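Narrative summary of target 7.
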Amino acid sequence: MAENNATQGARALAVIVLAAGQGTRMKSSLPKVLHRIGGRPLLGHVLDVARDLHPDSVLVVLRHERDRVAEAVTGIAPEIRVVDQDEIPGTGRAVQVALDALGDFDGDVLVLSGDVPLLDADTLDALLSAHRAAAAAATVLTAVVDDPSGYGRVIRAADSSVARIVEQKDATGDEASVTEINAGVYVFRAAPLREHLGLVGTANAQGERYLTDVIGLLRASRLAVAALTAPDAAAALGVNDRVQLAEAARLLNARTVRRWQLAGVTVQDPATTWIDVTATLAPDVTVLPNTHILRATAVSTGAVIGPDTSLVDCEVGEGATVTRSDATLAVIGAGATVGPFSYLRAGTQLAAGGKIGTFVETKNSTIGEGSKVPHLSYVGDTTIGRGVNLGAGAITANYDDLTKHRTHIGDEVHTGSHNVFVAPVRLGDGAKTGAGAVIRKDVPAGALALSVAPQRNIDGWVEKNRAGTAAADAVARARAAEKADDGAQ
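Modeled conformation, tokenized:
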């Protein structure tokens, strides 16, 4: 964890996050920095690590889809300042307008890209320390990668110092073969940065003011430029297209799963397990293959999740089991069991020791302690008491084509198979219902509710109405067998 900037005895620190680009290679209506990995937008990961450094100021520079991205920034960190880039394109201009917003700030300026989501505070802390130790005007974070396509190349001088940074579109063949890339992360002293930004031109393939040009200008002014190679190249990788987005998501997930394993969580198959950085798991949780634990889901000690399970914004109690199920905004109590093949929609609350079983869908319902909805049922807008058992095929008919209504089922109610409860309706404590009952009226405590019509059999109906069918042939055979049996007697 990075130290507080003040505890390092360092100059003041401002962080500028560049998030003004359009990200055309994503081919998306969604701004690139708002694409999500690990439960957060790319920009959210960058803002989190920026705040971990405890800087004096954090500014985000916006342009493309300005209002949409600004709203996201406010939702992530309302204290962060938003700065608008004007019509002059380029990262150099973006940093220039942010510096203008900082006024007479005189300290270190850390520049981050909103599309580099895997950076950690320790790497940035090391970058700041290297910058200050070298008394450099600028320090660049670099990485050595197998495939540098799409990234600016770091060109070294004969003494191995950083000479300049060349964007891929401006690189010669020899420069393009360099595998050391610019991570788009820099530390500058504010005064020389401010001075040399004014000298940056647009004589390049993009016609933009590149921030990278400042490095060459600082060298020409005989000011020190340092570099730190990231110990983990993945931390420096940016996201420019959907392929890189998926790779960043995979790397982040692997890091997250490993962290939970080291914290005492059993993850049986890390390759098929996805855990968002926003989720929390207690020691001795077991996660089985093909399981997704997403957003703000919290799983308590001893719970077993999976296989083939997705939990979104759920709470799972101690010792609970969730098998081959899908749940969103649900609460699952201690020792409860869910699945297989259950669907828990928003507002489901299953109390301790309860059960939501096979092929059951629930929504906006509270199921009391020790109560069971074992199989083949739909429970919506329902309050169920303690010790209840709903028979197979139970349906709470909660919608009358205009309004949703609630069903209330008291404690220790046991219902027959294939019941329909037509809301609004109440079943008192200890009530019973017969198989096939359609419950349209309230049932008093301790009463048995039946809706049984006398059974009527119409002889010869198949022969008369389905002549020539396989069923009619089967009837003919059955009647012949009956006559043979009667003759034998």
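Residues 47 and 207 are 29 Å apart (CA to CA).
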